[in-house]
Amino acid sequence: MMKKLLGLSALASGVLLGLSLATGAMAADLTTSCNGCHGPDGASTDPNIPTIAGASAAYLTATMNDYKKKERPCAEVTVPGGDKKGTKSDMCKALADVSAADIDTLAKAYAGKKFVRFNQTADAALAAKGKAVHDAQCEKCHSEGGSVADDDAGIMAGQPLAYLKAQLTDYKSGKRPAPSKMKPKTDALQPADIDALAQYYASFK
């Protein structure tokens, strides 16, 4: 009886290990295509593309679903790396045929990686002004300067400056829909505020 139980236990462990390895292989296959744009392990090396490593799984899932439903603008970019380097693509195209299960796998895979801040130089004077705007308008939802993944609001601290300016501008214009509690704040932003906020978030090292 004991031998039978030990055998069943070993079998169960082997099945679980097999599932774990299969899931890991699936995640690796999926992230390989994403890394062409978002950089090695989701750490961007392109000023127009965000780092996705280290964001929360909830935020990444919501973001990918927004792109699939075309509820967020799909800006065309030149793929900076990988097999499709030099070609044009956007997030709507990239996610068109990605299943809900694959989105879940991708979100969990990137959430488990380390966020790497973009290598850039920010304007210190503008960053100081941006900090004041952030503290007054944004800190409640984007705590610690927008650096906390558990806020489920994306990581802004250390993202590429060009990307930050583009997203803030899209929020201001309404091109990118803002959550109801965020919209009054983005509507009130002036061009100088957008520049300052982008410099503040870009200043994180």
Structure, briefly:
With 205 residues, the protein is mainly α.
Fold and architecture overview:
With 205 residues, this protein is mainly alpha-helical. It has two domains: 12-111, Cytochrome c-like domain (Cytochrome Bc1 Complex, Chain D, domain 2, Orthogonal Bundle); 124-202, Orthogonal Bundle (Cytochrome Bc1 Complex, Chain D, domain 2), CATH 1.10.760.10. 56% of the residues lie in helices and 2% in strands. The protein is built from nine helices and two strands. A two-stranded antiparallel ribbon has the order 1-2. α1 packs across α4 (100-111). The radius of gyration is 20 Å and the shape is globular. The model is unreliable at 8-23 (pLDDT under 50).
Low-pLDDT residue intervals, each spanning 5 or more residues: 8-23
The CATH superfamily of the largest domain is: Cytochrome c-like domain
Shape designation: globular
In what order do the strands lie side by side in the largest sheet? 1-2
Keywords:
205 residues; mainly alpha; Cytochrome Bc1 Complex, Chain D, domain 2; two-stranded antiparallel sheet; 9 helices; globular
Secondary structure elements and pairings:
Elements: H1 2-38, H2 57-68, E1 77-78, E2 88-89, H3 91-95, H4 100-111, H5 124-137, H6 143-146, H7 161-173, H8 183-187, H9 191-202
Antiparallel strand pairs: 1-2
Helix pairs in contact: 1-4, 2-4, 5-9, 7-9
